[in-house]
Structures are given as C-alpha cells and as structure tokens.
C-alpha cells in the first residue's frame, strides 16, 4: 500500500477546492483511505493519519472512528505518537463516551513517566476531559506533582487540580497542604495557576475561604512587587508587568475581602496604588483598572477609595472604545445606589452617552440616567430625557416613557410641571406608554383642582393636532367630559384662553367616535365624555341623537354604554345630573402603590383580607367537613374561596374530599363576617382610588418550591399586606414540563385552626405543556399569633386522559413569611 499523503499536502489540496461539494468529495476520499489504513493495523503511519483526521474534525467533518486509534497512540512509547494521541483524545473524547475510561491506566503511567513533557501531556489531557471517575483514580498522582520542584509540571498540575476539584469537590482537602507553598514560587506561570486554584477552592468552600484569608498579606506583597518591578521582557505586555497575573490576584482579593473587615483593611493601600499607578493609554491597563474597581466595590473599602473607583469609571466613559464605555456604564449602574453622590459628579458625561450610536450603550445610559434623577436635578434631567424620547428608536420609547412617568411622579416640583411633562410624553410617545398611565394621569388631573381649566385647554389643543396617540386621546376625552364647561367659558388663567363653542367640542368628540384610528376603549371614553357634557352643555338634543345612534353599534361594549345612557335620558332623567356630576378628588396614599382593587388571576377582587372583615365561607357544610381533615387532626381551618373554581358539577363531591369525614365540632369555625360587595364599577373610571396593598418587605422574602413531581412544579412567592402585617399573601405558580397539557387543574390548601386562609380563583384550569405558561393563584393567610406556617395541599388534574390526585405537606416556609 502506498504511503498516505502528509498533513501539509492534505491541507493544501483541500484549500484548492472551489465548492463545498468538491471539498466534501476530497474529505470522503481521504477518510476512506484512513479507514483502510486503520483496518490493516498500519503502525507506521497511524500518527500521520490521526493528525489528518483531527484536521478534518476541526473543519466539522465526523471523525469518531479514530477514537480507538488515539488510545493506541497514547500507549505508544514514542513522544510524537503520544502527543498526537493525547491531542486526539482531548478533541474526540469526552466523559459521555465509555471509551475514555480505557485511557485511565495509560495516563497514570505517563504521570509517573521520567520525561516531564510526557507527564505534561497526561496532565493536560486529564485537566481537559477527565471524568469524575478518572479524577478520583488519579488525584493522588496530581497531588504528588503539585509538590515537585519542577515549575513546568507544577503549573500544569495546579490547573489539573482545578479540574479535579470541579468534578469531585470532596477531594479539595487533599490539595490543601500543597497549595500553601505555591505562592512562594518565583515562576510567574506557577503563581498564575496557583491563584486560579486558590480562587476555585475559595468559591466552592466557605471553610477554605476563611482558611485562605490569612494569605492576603502575601498576595498583597506579590501584587506590589509586580507594580513596582522594572521592565521584564518575558512578562511585559504594553509596558505593564504580567497583567494576567495582576488580574487574577485582584479577583482573588475580591473574593477574600468580601464581607471581611480585616482582609479589606489589609488590601486598601495596594488597591489605591494599582488605581493610581496603572497606565490607562492601552487596553491592558484598562483591564487591570476595571478589575481594581470591581474589587474596591465588592470589599469593605474606605469611602475615599470608592470615590477613586467611580472616578476611574468616569474616565472610562470618555474612552473611544465602545466596550470600555459599556463596561463603565454597567458598573456605575450597579454602584449608583450605594455611592449616589459620587456617581452624580459624572452626570453630564452619562447624559452625553444617550447620543451614542451604539444601542447597548444608549440603553445602559438611559437606565443610569433614570437612577440619577432626584429632587434637585429633576428639571434638567427630564429635559435631556424628553429630548432623548423624541429622537430615540421605537425600541427605547416604552422604557423611557415609563421611567419619565415614575420619576415625574416621585420628584415633580409642581403639579403644572408634572402635568406638562406627562402630556409631553403622551404627545411624543403615547402609543408606547404603560396601560396604567391613563388612569394615573386622570387621577393627577382630578386632584389638581386649580389646574383643571389649563389642563383641559392644553388637551383640547393636542387633540386638534393629533388623534393617533390613543392614551392622549383617552385622557383628553375624559377631561373634556369632566371640564368641558371650563373649556367653553374660557376661564384659563395660566395661558391665553381660546374661544371654543359647544358645537366645536362635540364635533371633535364625534370625530373620535368615527375615526379609524380610535380603538374600542377610546370610543368608550369619547361616548362617556359626550354623555357627561349633557349636564354641562345646552346642546341636549344633539347629544341624545349621538347616544341613540350607538345603541345599535356592532361593538358590544359601546352598544351597552349607549343603551344605558339612553335609559338615563328617558327613565332616569331625574337622576342624570347627580350621576354625571364631576368626579371627587381621588386620594392616593402611596406613590406607585398598587391600588386596592387588585386584578387577581383575571378577576377583580375589591377586598383586602382583614381581621375584622373576613369573607364568609361560601362552601356547603359537607364540603367543609371533608376539607377539615387535611392536616390529620381536628385543628384545621378550611379554605375560603371567593369564587368557586370552574369544574364540572359531577366532580364537586370529590373536589374537596381530602382525607375524611371529621366532625365540625372538633375545632372552632370562623364566624361568617360581612364581606365587601364585589360589584363591577358602573362607570369607566370608577375604582381609581388606590391604597397600598403590599409593602417593601416582599423583596426580601425568598420564593420556594412547594411541590415538584411528575413534571408539575408548584412555586410559592410571598408578599406581606401593608394595612395588616399579620397577613401573608402567597402567589402560587404552577408550571408543567411534560409534553402534554394538564387539564382540569385544581389547587386546594388547608392550614391549622390558629390561621385563617382565603384562596382566590386561579388564572386558568389548564397548565400548558413544555413550560410554555403557568397557572397563578393567590392565597391569603392570616396569622395573628405569628406561628410557624404549615400547610397541606391537594392537587387534582387530568394528564394524558388519566385523572391524577396527590397530597403534599409544606412545612419549610421561609421565616420572613410568618414572623
């Protein structure tokens, strides 16, 4: 058989291919020749053939048939064969294939080889693709090589030890004695790998972290020597001595100093030296400065040092490199809450980044700008952000408009400024604002009594200019309906009043009703506004005619409104002036607080659970009896459901049959109390009065997984009620990772008698497959005695046509949810 072509010739041949098909034909031909050579057990050219096979693998062609040939090369005594064999093993093998276990004995022999280069090959391979079984078997040899005096082997053994620890963390203590001596090594390669090993051990074990904190002075000394040392050609990169080692040491110091006063104190001085002495003209210096900033921010550093770090990030914002600017903005965004005043000094530079062409920099600058807004700079910052809103891409408008709304609500210097700012947003990006912006602005206008004439005049002018921005049109329609008489009378004092007749106002509102740009919701606002003007304007016959026309509208919502308004004109005309009088001032006790009318799982629940007002039990006594035995005793309280779940009538008996027939006499039952009526608001904008429902403690209560079985996962998230801290509000999230939907899903719960529990209606009774959605349901638990929360849950659903029912007990609630 002729000698196969060399690798260099194969590469040259493949590069001459003009098409993909031609290249594929060359590869297939060569693979066939390599297979024939392997079958004939040709030892002479095995190394050459495997090398060509690796090149084909790198081009993306299958090369798995060469795996065993790699093992044969590893077993060879020639170094050239071993080198290609180990390289092939690293590329073609991994721990998912059992073939790799055949290498274990060869690697063990090579780790004890007399030649350091063969030992290095074995260490590299084990550190690259060693499985947990191989790591357990060979950890002893790696630990021996860590103690050798040969720096070439020590650096490779340290990296191999990192891989062993990742695969088998319990072997960490084996490397502890050898690790202590690595930092005294002069060789930079060994120092670098030892710092990597120390970092890995500290990240994986709190005990190791506390043990290695005593090495901080030694690490500080190494870093100081690197900074103060003169030019060293073998370690110099752009005038900086071994920046890779400096970065690794800074990362390790960050881990060691986090949350520890003594360690942080020991590294403050060296961090200041690095921050002031590092050259920033090259990217190498910027990398070291960035790691220094991250370390300063993570440890318990002095305030002056933190200011220095933020100033470095401020300098980064002036850099021409976009990556450096992005990194600086991201880092400042993380630190703005803790060092607000220091970041404020760079406000002008941050605002300039809003004009950057790069969208990622623009977004980070926008987020940081909103974080910097306060009562002192609100006017200037809003001017810049409104200018940005005018010119930014559509992708930014929604987030920018939302941020301006929140900032204006929190820091507005006056009500007129607040109203002007919101109207500017609505005219600029009205189609992108959040759904709650319309009722929020209406509430703001209602409460600003002295601004009613000014506001309605401004909104009327805006309507004449543009009716495409639906939120703006809705607010304008509502205001014209409420304060149309002020518009016609020309009572505006803040600016020159305009002369408007009643017919002109009605023309505009009627135009909204017939416009193709108007949504059904906008038409509802317009019709209601026209109806309200029947008590403010004298054009009663025209208004009656308009309302009667829409009594036959194809839009059911609009038709219902028109029919009801027609009834007001005819049967209840004596009540019309009282019903259509101006809305009273709407009180809002907390900024951005959720309103008392909570939209829960698609149903409106107007009540807040209170010790004095618990809704009465709406379930039959027989079902309550079945539910009481959930916790295996007679000290439980049944659920209180505001709405009966949508379930077939035939399933009603077994729905609540949880464990048995315990008598109601076993424990006290909560007495029914009067509940707040849950009627639908009669008018479009009723129910805007808001009270805070949850306080900020929700952010610190961790979520928990209550149930995980058969692909069904039930997660609990927690909030605490603001009016009554004894109430925990639990939201369940049910997800389904199987390939079929879970239908007729019912979640039930019971608690001991010292608690009271209310279970609201679920968002759905179908849990979608493949985690493509979730079912949510709200539970309110009253815990007046602050006892540890216990709960028994029952799950019922149909999966793949088969009914499934399961019980579970949940006892591991986070302490914050019940204390």
As a percent range, the share of helical residues equals 40-55%
Low-confidence stretches: 589-698
Give the total of beta strands: 14
Give the CA-based shape.
elongated
Note the beta-strand portion.
Answer: 5-15%
Spatial separation of the terminal alpha carbons:
83 Å
Instruction: Enumerate how many helices there are, as a single number.
Output: 34
Structural class: alpha+beta
The overall average pLDDT, rounded, is 81
Strand order of the largest sheet: 6-11-12-9-8-7
Describe what this molecule looks like in 3D.
The chain is 51% helix and 10% strand. The protein is elongated. It contains 34 helices and 14 strands. The chain has 819 residues and is α+β, with helices and mostly antiparallel strands. Helix 29 packs parallel to helix 31.
Question: How do you describe this structure in short?
Answer:
This protein has 819 residues and is of the alpha+beta class.
């Amino acid at each position: 058989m002729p000698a196969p072509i060399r690798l260099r010739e194969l590469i040259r041949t493949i590069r001459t291919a003009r098409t993909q098909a031609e290249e594929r034909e060359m590869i297939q031909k060569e693979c066939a020749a390599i297979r024939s050579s392997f079958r004939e057990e040709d030892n002479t050219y095995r190394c050459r053939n495997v090398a060509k096979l690796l090149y084909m693998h790198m081009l993306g062609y299958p090369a798995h048939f060469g795996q065993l040939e790699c093992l044969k090369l590893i077993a060879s005594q020639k170094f050239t064969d071993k080198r290609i064999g180990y390289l092939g093993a690293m590329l073609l093998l991994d721990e998912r294939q059992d073939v790799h276990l055949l290498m274990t004995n060869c690697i063990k022999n090579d780790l004890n080889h007399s030649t350091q280069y063969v030992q290095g090959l074995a260490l590299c391979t084990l550190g690259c693709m060693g499985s947990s079984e191989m790591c357990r078997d060979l950890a002893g040899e790696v630990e021996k090589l860590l103690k050798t005096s040969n720096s070439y082997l020590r650096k490779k053994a340290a990296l191999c030890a990192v891989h062993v620890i990742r695969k088998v963390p319990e072997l960490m203590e084996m490397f502890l004695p050898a690790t202590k001596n690595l930092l005294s090594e002069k060789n930079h390669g060994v120092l670098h790998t030892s710092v990597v090993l120390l970092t890995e051990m500290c990240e994986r074990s709190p005990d190791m972290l506390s043990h290695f904190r005593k090495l901080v002075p030694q690490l500080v000394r190494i870093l100081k020597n690197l900074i103060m040392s003169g030019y060293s050609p073998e370690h110099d990169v752009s005038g900086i001595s071994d920046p890779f080692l400096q970065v690794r040491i800074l990362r390790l110091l960050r881990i060691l100093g986090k949350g520890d006063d003594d360690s942080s104190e020991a590294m403050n001085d060296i961090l200041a030296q690095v921050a002031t002495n590092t050259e920033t003209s090259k990217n190498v210096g910027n990398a070291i400065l960035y790691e220094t900033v991250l370390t300063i921010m993570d440890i318990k550093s002095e305030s002056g040092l933190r200011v220095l770090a933020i100033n470095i990030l401020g300098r980064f914002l002036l850099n021409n490199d976009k990556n450096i600017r992005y990194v600086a903005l991201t880092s400042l965004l993380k630190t703005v809450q803790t060092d607000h005043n220091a970041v404020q000094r760079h406000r002008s530079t941050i605002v300039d980044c809003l004009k950057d062409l790069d969208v990622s920099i623009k977004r980070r600058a926008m987020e940081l700008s909103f974080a910097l807004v306060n009562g002192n700079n609100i006017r200037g910052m809003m001017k810049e952000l409104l200018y940005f809103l005018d010119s930014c891409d559509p992708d930014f408008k929604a987030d920018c408009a939302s941020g301006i709304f929140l900032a204006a609500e929190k820091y507005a210097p006056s009500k007129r400024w607040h109203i002007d700012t919101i109207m500017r947003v609505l005219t600029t990006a009205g189609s992108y604002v959040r759904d709650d912006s319309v009722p929020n602005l209406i509430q703001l206008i209602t409460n600003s009594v002295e601004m009613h004439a000014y506001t309605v005049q401004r909104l009327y002018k805006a309507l004449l200019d543009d009716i495409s921005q639906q939120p703006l049109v809705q607010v304008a329609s509502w205001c014209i309906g409420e304060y149309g008489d002020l518009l016609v009378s020309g009572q505006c004092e803040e600016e020159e009043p305009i002369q408007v007749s009643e017919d002109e106002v009605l023309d505009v509102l009627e135009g909204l009703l017939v416009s193709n740009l108007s949504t059904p919701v906008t038409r509802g606002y317009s019709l209601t506004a026209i109806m309200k003007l029947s008590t403010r304007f004298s054009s009663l016959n025209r208004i009656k005619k308009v309302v009667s026309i829409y009594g036959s509208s194809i839009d059911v919502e609009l038709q219902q409104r028109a029919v009801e308004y027609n009834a007001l004109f005819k049967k209840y005309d004596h009540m019309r002036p009282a019903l259509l009088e101006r809305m009273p001032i709407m009180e809002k006790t907390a900024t951005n607080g959720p309103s008392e009318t909570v939209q829960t799982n698609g149903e409106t629940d107007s009540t807040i659970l209170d010790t004095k007002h618990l809704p009465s039990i709406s379930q039959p006594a027989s079902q309550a009896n079945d539910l009481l035995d959930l916790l295996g005793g007679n000290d439980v309280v049944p659920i209180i459901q505001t709405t009966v779940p949508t379930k077939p009538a035939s399933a009603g008996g077994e729905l609540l049959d949880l464990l048995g027939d315990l008598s109601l006499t076993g424990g006290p039952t909560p007495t029914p109390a009067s509940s707040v009526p849950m009627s639908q608001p009669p008018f479009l904008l009723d129910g805007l009065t808001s009270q805070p429902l949850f306080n900020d403690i929700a952010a610190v209560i961790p979520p928990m997984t209550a149930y995980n079985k058969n692909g069904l996962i039930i997660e609990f998230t927690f909030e605490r009620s603001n009016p009554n801290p004894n109430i925990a509000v639990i939201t369940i999230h049910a997800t389904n990772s199987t390939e079929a939907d879970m239908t007729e899903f019912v979640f039930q719960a019971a608690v001991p008698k010292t608690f009271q529990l209310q279970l609201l209606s679920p968002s759905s009774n179908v849990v979608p497959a493949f985690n493509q959605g979730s079912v949510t349901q709200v539970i309110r638990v009253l815990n007046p005695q602050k006892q540890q929360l216990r709960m028994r849950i029952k799950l019922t659903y149909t999966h793949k046509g088969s009914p499934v029912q399961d019980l579970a007990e949940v006892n591991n609630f986070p302490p914050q949810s019940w204390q």
